[in-house]
Amino acid sequence: MAASSGTGAASGGRSRTRGDAEVSREAIIAAARRAFARQPYAAITLKAIAADAGVSAPLVLKYFGSKEQLFARVARFGDEIDRLLDAPLPDLGRHLLHALLDAHEQRRDPLIRVAFALQHGEHATLLRDNFRDQVVARLRSRLTGPDAALRAELVLAHLLGLGVLRKIVHTEAISVAERDRIVDLCAPGLQRLLDGTV
Question: Where does the sequence pass through the membrane (predicted)?
Fold first, then answer.
């Protein structure tokens, strides 16, 4: 009985360790996204990212290897864009807004970091290329009809603008507005762009 109990505790401990590792990785990624959205690449240190994430700098190195490798991870949009585009086309306008506002409440924005690409010097190309290939192209592939590429980019321009005003500039009306009101006002226009009925 005692041996069995001890084995269970050990197994539970390993499970918690794996869970803790995943939590730490996600905290590091979130902290890195905040850092790379606010400061030039050259000014960012792994020590500062670690402090924001509540972990040690050696742990950042263990998980990601280097600042350059961490930036490469942060510059990817894959999973976040999966969530952002996870709706049928007729419902996508409202879904995009709800998903983006959810991300804002979690101190994340899957799009806004591309607006700061220029401050990252030679690393900016990776961020811009990933945005074009992993975000713009994926949304474009969902659309049909005339001007599909232009419409996709205009939708993203609206979403980026919302993020900048709400999370960076903190303009008064948009910062205090109820999220449902933002969705109700913005969704019809976005949906027309998505449907090609403008």
Answer: none
